[in-house]
Q: What sequence folds into this?
């Protein structure tokens, strides 16, 4: 259905990331919906590997300048924007020197997960939500891709529960096979600072447990990868949330 406002929140998108299924799928979904006459926006982290010069990113001063408090520290939110190369489709980048300047995504050169991955996910989720509100652009559909994006519905249904801004948005979560990693055991205290508690994932905080928990906070879960690993597939099969098996990109608008 055209003339919808569709927000894609993702951790990967081609050409900013290459050679992953998620990056390719998000690119194709966003372009398909854009070309069918929908108002599409994409939000993603400005990871250090993304070249600002190559992709012509520039800071949006009117959207930057907010501070997000995480673990009792003020972290400045920087918003950058670019057009998808060759397309009139805007991609917004959530940036912060502390969290996203490093050249790796989630693991250091030795393969160890970064200690602050939990804070990076919280910052990303809250940064997207606050920026959308500042844009004064109300999405009809929010489509989540990537484990960091799974923090968005948790925040929308708890911390922002009394905020009516997103109350009519349909939230879709795509599941992908991402490398699991433990998250900081102190994440419970950081979330409690935002009045979030009682999550099952806090018993064993990790990438996968938060993705599994987020299924309870969305309207639809869909397989982004055709075949999910065992733990994720189990969580998919057990969720009471309406769900869909893998859909190719040409069929994705059935979800909206």
A:
């Amino acid at each position: 259905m055209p003339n919808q406002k569709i927000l894609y929140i993702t951790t990967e998108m081609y050409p900013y990331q290459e050679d992953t299924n998620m990056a390719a799928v998000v690119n194709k979904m966003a372009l398909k919906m854009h070309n069918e006459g929908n108002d599409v926006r994409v939000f993603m982290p400005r990871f250090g590997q993304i070249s600002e010069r190559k992709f012509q990113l520039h800071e949006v001063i009117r959207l930057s300048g907010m501070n997000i408090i995480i673990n009792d520290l003020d972290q400045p939110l920087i918003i950058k924007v670019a057009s998808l190369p060759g397309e009139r489709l805007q991609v917004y980048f959530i940036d912060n020197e502390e969290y996203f300047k490093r050249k790796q995504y989630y693991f250091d050169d030795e393969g160890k997960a970064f200690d602050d991955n939990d804070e990076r996910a919280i910052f990303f989720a809250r940064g997207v939500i606050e920026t959308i509100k500042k844009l004064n652009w109300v999405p009809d559909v929010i489509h989540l891709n990537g484990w960091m994006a799974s923090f968005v519905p948790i925040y929308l249904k708890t911390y922002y529960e009394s905020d009516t801004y997103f109350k009519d948005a349909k939230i879709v979560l795509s599941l992908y096979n991402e490398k699991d990693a433990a998250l900081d055991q102190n994440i419970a205290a950081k979330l409690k600072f935002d009045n979030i508690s009682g999550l099952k994932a806090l018993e064993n905080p990790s990438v996968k447990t938060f993705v599994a928990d987020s299924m309870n906070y969305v309207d639809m879960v869909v397989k982004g990868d055709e075949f999910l690993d065992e733990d994720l597939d189990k969580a998919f099969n057990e969720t009471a949330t309406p769900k869909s098996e893998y859909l190719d990109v040409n069929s994705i608008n059935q979800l909206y």
Summary: Residues 147 and 178 are 8 Å apart (CA to CA).
